[in-house]
Write a structure and sequence with these properties.
By secondary structure, the protein is of the alpha/beta class. The chain has helices at about 5-25, 30-35, 75-85, 120-135, 150-155, 165-175, 180-190, 200, 235-245, 255-260, 315-330, 345-360, 385-400, 430-440, 445-450, 450-460, and strands at about 35-40, 45, 55-60, 65-70, 90-95, 110, 140-145, 205-215, 310, 335, 365-370, 405-415, 425-430, 460-465, 475-480.
Length: about 475
């Protein structure tokens, strides 16, 4: 590479980093909250994007308001909600997150749940939430503030004999099996006393509003934190199929395996032929009659979901659209391709590079954007790294066959953390492999042992943002500039 080409690649590195970090800043909880909801006195209005007018909940009809905030964005979501509601009598709640806010409200109990594996606080928060929701009556409004990471941070086995250590081992086995998140969370839903809709049926008579910041595909919103407040359409039969598909029976602790193999394994609550109507209407303006906007027939435990509302505050689509706008403003032709969501990282790397080269021939300044997450199947204890750095290193090995090409690949997580590292992700280009070898690294070995972070750190090519307070999944940017 010549000094001029080095400078050009440095420019692309800086540009890709700025697109990612600026898109993160623009995709924030507070502004998203105010685009969707508005508190005016005793009225909560949902602002409809189609301009058809607001929908309304009369807060004055509720004597008590409970708030259950779960996940990586629990702190910011809770802070904004409490600020917008001002002081209200009968307000109580719990907040369970890996990142607890500095400012705390005396009406809320705070728990530092574990992630990516549950801890004692995860169990304590779940018990506290169930205890609080038992007090909910018809005069109670419950806000569920749900974001990514809650599956680990907030958990309690349905079988009380299963210990915390066995629960941790269960989560470890799921994380390393290579299954996509919807299959992983199918098992979590049937395992847990607070997932798969069970947190909603703990307050069957209350009006329930779920405000969501998903780290899962929007087509599978009930997988967000394993769906604590939404009816579950996964089945016990699917649980058994997933266990067999990924050979999990021999990897699970004996107590967990016995739980899943019992002949009367409980179904999670929810009509299995009906998927929940996310983005539904507020459902009612008076305590009675009870109504729900879906025409679905709800019976038995499903009645607990009749007065339920689901609103997506912020998603990976917002992050992608922010990145698209930034790239277009910078003069790039932009294409978005999210089709490799939940693909194996290596397959996704090959696909996006092929797609990039196919489209780039028509545009000298080109940016390909891809949202969602890739998967990594672990066959050994990993080194330091995560799916984004693994993806970037796979791209680097492919790009090494195209020296001199002005192309940069960025892959980073919007929560600011990639795997077991403090990096959000990494940047790769056609010189990455050669530079790594000059530092004494064997890139193929780093890839095989899931140990990409030391390599990218030595090259100065990691993306470090610190915890962002939410998780809108991952962002991948492929950028070239032949001008």
């Amino acid at each position: 590479m010549t000094p001029a080409s080095d400078t050009a690649l440095d420019f692309l590195h800086a540009r890709a980093t700025s697109f990612f970090t600026e898109a993160l800043k623009a995709s924030n909880i507070e502004s998203a909250f105010d685009r969707r909801l508005r508190f005016e006195g005793n009225t909560l209005k949902r602002l409809l994007p189609d301009g058809s007018g607001p929908e309304v909940i009369n807060l004055a009809q509720y004597k008590r308001i409970f708030v259950i905030a779960i996940g990586k964005a629990a702190g910011p979501m809770l802070e904004v909600l409490l600020d917008r509601m001002k002081r209200r009598k009968g307000l109580r709640g719990i907040c369970c997150s890996k990142y607890l806010p500095k400012r705390r409200n005396w009406r809320i109990r705070y728990y530092e749940g574990g992630h990516p594996l549950p801890n004692e606080e995860s169990f304590a928060a779940a018990r506290e939430a169930l205890g609080l929701l038992k007090k909910a009556k018809r005069d109670t409004l419950v806000f569920y503030l749900i974001s990514g990471g809650g599956s680990a941070m907030f958990d309690l086995p349905l079988d009380p004999k299963i210990t915390l250590s066995d629960t941790v081992a269960f989560h470890e086995a799921l994380l390393g099996c290579g299954a996509p998140i919807n299959e992983i969370n199918t098992l979590r839903k049937h395992f847990s006393a607070v997932k798969g809709g069970r947190l909603a049926i703990a307050a069957p008579d209350a009006m329930k509003v779920s405000l969501l910041v998903p780290d899962v595909p929007l087509r599978t919103l009930d997988a967000l934190s394993s769906g604590p407040s939404s009816p579950d359409h996964s089945t016990v039969g699917e649980v058994h199929e997933i266990i067999e598909k990924y050979g999990l029976a021999e990897k699970l602790p004996a107590s967990v395996n016995a739980f899943f193999l019992q002949t009367d394994l409980p179904e999670s609550p929810g009509n299995k032929k009906w998927k929940p109507p996310f983005l539904s209407r507020f459902g009612r303006t008076e305590p009675s009659p009870r109504r729900f906007t879906s025409a679905a027939s709800l019976t038995g435990e499903d009645e607990a979901f009749r007065d339920s509302v689901y609103e997506v505050l912020l998603s990976d689509l917002d992050l992608v659209e922010c990145a698209r706008a930034l790239a277009q403003q910078a003069g790039y032709f932009v294409s978005v391709d999210n089709s490799c969501d939940d693909w194996d990282y290596a397959d996704a790397a090959r696909y996006l590079l092929d797609r990039f080269h196919e489209l780039r021939t028509h545009h000298r300044r080109f940016c390909l954007i891809s949202g969602g997450e890739v998967t990594v199947k672990l066959d050994r204890a990993p080194g330091a790294g995560g799916r984004n750095q693994q993806f970037a290193l796979a791209c680097a090995l492919e790009l090494a066959h195209h020296p001199g090409e002005m192309l940069t690949v960025l892959s980073a997580g919007s929560d600011g953390i990639d795997g077991n590292t403090q990096s959000a992700g990494a940047i790769a280009d056609p010189t990455t492999v050669a530079r790594a070898r000059a530092f004494g690294f064997n890139p193929e070995e780093n890839l095989r042992t899931f140990n990409a972070c030391p390599l990218f750190t030595a090259l100065g090519d990691t993306i470090v943002t610190g915890p962002t307070g939410h998780n809108l999944r991952d962002l991948r940017l492929l950028i070239s500039d032949q001008s």
